[in-house]
């Protein structure tokens, strides 16, 4: 998934804060606040050095706090999957961008993780996840991709357990779409 796809989340969710789980250098936060300056973003990143460098060299500190439109970014250097700093009423949207060594975190392949994330949403809230590369690795055709989506150890399979009956979409390069 390209970071700019995350910017399509605000128009389809209710009012309220958006969580960014895996803030990284703040690219998604910057784009979201540029396009949706009234949105409150709460970002989690486990790597304090990355946040410090992003503040120093990528202008992350410019996004922190409230902006003139009432939106802004709050940063937590902590486990993104902990609900300890969640707002009352939950999140309107959750962006999940959690990787280690180039792969999605193994915990994202567990249904229990998605049950917990679902509880962090307010009514009408949605989750958007970056996991396309993990799904596409070694799969060149739609049939193989579809079997991967429903495989036991796959992120979307785990998500489908927590969101039964919900439409899960996978978008890859232009024109590619698979649904579970």
TrEMBL record:
Belongs to the methyltransferase superfamily. Keywords: Methyltransferase, Transferase. The lineage of its organism: Eukaryota, Viridiplantae, Streptophyta, Embryophyta, Tracheophyta. GO terms for molecular function: methyltransferase activity. One of its GO terms (biological process) is methylation. The keyword Transferase applies. This is PABS domain-containing protein. The keyword Nucleotide-binding does not apply.
């Amino acid at each position: 998934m390209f970071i700019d796809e995350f910017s399509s989340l605000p128009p389809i969710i209710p009012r309220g804060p958006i969580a960014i789980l895996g803030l990284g250098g703040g690219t998604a936060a910057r784009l979201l606040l540029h396009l949706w300056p009234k949105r409150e973003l709460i970002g989690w990143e486990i790597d304090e050095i990355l946040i410090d460098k992003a503040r120093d060299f990528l202008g992350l500190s410019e996004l922190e706090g409230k902006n003139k439109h009432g939106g802004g970014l709050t940063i937590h250097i902590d486990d993104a999957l902990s609900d300890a700093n969640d707002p009352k009423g939950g999140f309107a949207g959750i962006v999940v961008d959690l990787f280690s060594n180039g792969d999605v975190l193994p915990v994202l392949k567990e249904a229990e993780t998605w049950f917990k994330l679902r509880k962090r949403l307010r009514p009408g809230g949605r989750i958007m996840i970056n996991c396309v590369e993990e799904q596409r690795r070694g799969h060149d055709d739609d049939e193989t991709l579809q079997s991967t989506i429903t495989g036991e150890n796959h992120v979307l399979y785990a998500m489908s357990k927590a969101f039964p009956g919900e439409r899960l979409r996978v978008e890859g390069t232009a024109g590619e779409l698979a649904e579970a």
